[in-house]
C-alpha cells in the first residue's frame, strides 16, 4: 500500500499508487507521489515513466475525510500543496510520463493525467471534476488539456464525466483497451519511446513544455486561491460535512 517504484529493463519506470479503497490520497500520499516522480526523473537511467494505480479506479482525488477531521485549515493547506507538487512533478519530469487509467479518474486524478505526456485508458475509464459539488475548485487547468473549452466548462459546472472513448476521439487518450490489457498497452508505448535516443527525448520534453501556451503550474495555483477563499467563507466545510453524511447514509 502507498506508492511503489519498479524499475524495469530498458529504462522504463513504473510508479504504482495503491491507497484503498478508492485511491483518494491523503496529504502524505500526494507528497510521496511527487517524490517518486522526482526521484525517477532524476535517475539518468530512466527513459520513460508509467504512472498507474491498483484497485477499482485510478484516482478519486483528495481524502475528504482527512480534511473533514481537521477543525482548522492545516490539512487543507497541506493537501493543496501536496496536489500542487504532485501535478508539477508529472509535468516537470524530465522524461515522458504515461498515465495508465482504469475506472474513475476524478479530482486530483485529472491534475495527474492532464499533466501527463500520454494517456492509455481502459474501456471502463471515466474522467471528471466533481469539485463544485465538494465545495472546492481546481484542476480546470488540466481538464482543459483533455477536452475542448466549452465541454470543460460544462463538465466543471455540472460534474458530468467523459468516457475514455470520448477523450480518444479528441486525441487526448492515446489508446483505449480492455482493463486486463491496460498495463501491457502502456508498457508497449513506453518501450517505443524508451528505444529512442534518451538525450533527444529529454530535450523534446523540455522543448514541448517550453512552447505550452499555458503555464500549468501558475494557472493551477491561481485556481487554488479560490478554493482557499471558499473555505474561509465556511461554505466548503458545510458542503464537505453534507457529503460525509451522504456517504454514511
SSE arrangement:
Layout: E1 2-7, E2 12-18, H1 27-42, E3 48-53, H2 64-68, H3 74-92, E4 97-101, E5 104-106, H4 108-114, E6 118-122, E7 126-128, H5 140-143, H6 149-158, E8 161-163, H7 164-170, E9 175-177, H8 182-194, H9 198-210, H10 216-233, H11 235-248
Parallel strand pairs: 2-3, 3-4, 4-6, 5-7, 6-9
Antiparallel strand pairs: 1-2, 7-8
Helix pairs in contact: 1-3, 3-4, 3-10
Short description:
By secondary structure, this protein is an alpha/beta fold. It has helices spanning 27-42, 64-68, 74-92, 108-114, 140-143, 149-158, 164-170, 182-194, 198-210, 216-233, 235-248, and strands spanning 2-7, 12-18, 48-53, 97-101, 104-106, 118-122, 126-128, 161-163, 175-177. A six-stranded mixed β-sheet has the order 1-2-3-4-6-9, sandwiched between helices. Strands 5-7-8 form a three-stranded mixed β-sheet.
What this model shows, in words?
This protein has about 250 residues and is an alpha/beta fold. It has eleven helices and nine strands. It has helices spanning about 25-40, 65-70, 75-90, 110-115, 140-145, 150-160, 165-170, 180-195, 200-210, 215-235, 235-249, and strands at about 1-5, 10-20, 50-55, 95-100, 105, 120, 125-130, 160-165, 175. It has a six-stranded mixed β-sheet, with helices on both faces. The chain has a three-stranded mixed β-sheet with strand order 5-7-8. Helix 3 packs parallel to helix 4. The longest helix is centred in the middle third of the chain and has 19 residues, at about 75-90. The two termini are about 30 Å apart. The model has no long low-confidence stretch (mean pLDDT about 95).
Amino acid at each position: 500500500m502507498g506508492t511503489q517504484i519498479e524499475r524495469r529493463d530498458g529504462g522504463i519506470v513504473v510508479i504504482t499508487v495503491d491507497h484503498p479503497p478508492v485511491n483518494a490520497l491523503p496529504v502524505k500520499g500526494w507528497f510521496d507521489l511527487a517524490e517518486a516522480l522526482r526521484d525517477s526523473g532524476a535517475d539518468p537511467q530512466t527513459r520513460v515513466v508509467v504512472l498507474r494505480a491498483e484497485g477499482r479506479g485510478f484516482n478519486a482525488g483528495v481524502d475528504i475525510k482527512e480534511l473533514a477531521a481537521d477543525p482548522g485549515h492545516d490539512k487543507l493547506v497541506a493537501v493543496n500543496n501536496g496536489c500542487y507538487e504532485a501535478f508539477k512533478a508529472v509535468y516537470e519530469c524530465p522524461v515522458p510520463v504515461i498515465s495508465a487509467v482504469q475506472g474513475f479518474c476524478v479530482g486530483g486524478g485529472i491534475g495527474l493525467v492532464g499533466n501527463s505526456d500520454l494517456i492509455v485508458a481502459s474501456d471502463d475509464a471515466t474522467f471528471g471534476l466533481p469539485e463544485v459539488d465538494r465545495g472546492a475548485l481546481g484542476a480546470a487547468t488540466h481538464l482543459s488539456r483533455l477536452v475542448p473549452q466549452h465541454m470543460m466548462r460544462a463538465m466543471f459546472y455540472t460534474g458530468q464525466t467523459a468516457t475514455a472513448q470520448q477523450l480518444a476521439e479528441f486525441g487526448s487518450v492515446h489508446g483505449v483497451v480492455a482493463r486486463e490489457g491496460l498495463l501491457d498497452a502502456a508498457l508497449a508505448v513506453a518501450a517505443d519511446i524508451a528505444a529512442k535516443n534518451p538525450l533527444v527525448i529529454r530535450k523534446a520534453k523540455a522543448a514541448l513544455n517550453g512552447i505550452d501556451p499555458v503555464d500549468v503550474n501558475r494557472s493551477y495555483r491561481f485556481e487554488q486561491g479560490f478554493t482557499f477563499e471558499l473555505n474561509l467563507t465556511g461554505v466548503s466545510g458545510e458542503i464537505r460535512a453534507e457529503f460525509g453524511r451522504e456517504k454514511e447514509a
